[in-house]
Each structure stands twice: as C-alpha cells, then as structure tokens.
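Problem: given the chain below (146 residues), write out its structure.
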Amino acid sequence: METTAEFSFDTIEARIDSVSARDSVGDVVNRSQHLISIGEQIMSAWLVAHDQEPTTETKEGFRLIALHRQGCKGDPSFNACRETCRELAYHHNLITNDPDHPDVYKRLTMAGMVAKHLCLFVGGKMQVAELGEFCCSSRPIRANGG
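Solution.
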C-alpha cells in the first residue's frame, strides 16, 4: 500500500508552484507529467487515509481519473473534484499534443492552478469530512490555520 508518511499538503503546494513556474527547469511535457503525478499522489493520499489500496488501473487513459473514481465510492461529496481531475488531464493533453504551442506556458500555469485546486480540496476534505460540494469551501479551513 502507498504511504502518506512523506505527504504534506504544504509541501505538495510548493512542488506544484515550482513545477508550473515559467522559469522552472525541464521541458514542459515532463513538467506537465509531473503535475499529473502530483495529482495521483493527492488522490492516493485520500484513498490511503480511507484504508483503500490505490488502483493502478487507468480510466480514459489516466490513472488520476481512475483514482478519483475509486475515491468517490461511498462519498458522493468527493465527486466535487471530478472535473478538477479531468481538467488537469485536459491541460496535460494540450501540452503533450503541442509542446511548441505559443500558449504552452499559459497552459502549464493553468495545469498548476488546477493541481493546486485539487490539493486544496482534498486537503480540506481530509480535515473536515463534511466539506461541501464546492471546492472553494476549503478556504475557511485554510484561513483558520486548520
């Protein structure tokens, strides 16, 4: 089973920021793949925290989507981040299909913002299980130092 021992939402946020920054080292395709991997780590942390073995399967070509599907079983409010996972996959596809596009850095920045959104929602859900259907509901938790 994967472990969350080295998983910190603050650390993950910093990693997201460093990967999506325009002046980061590495090509955009690898950086985009790294954001997908971070998304998978976030979703895996949710599953491990709920005593589930994270799947290695894919859905629609992404493990991230399969992990989300697994994570929302038994918790309908977790469905709120479905589109966030799908949007991260969408931006990854845009980047990998045309890494020389003039807007590739905007796309990478957006993928980073989406990954951070996923991190904030899942981190909030892990603190307050009753967190509402809207990801922005996690803001009061973060503002109160929770």
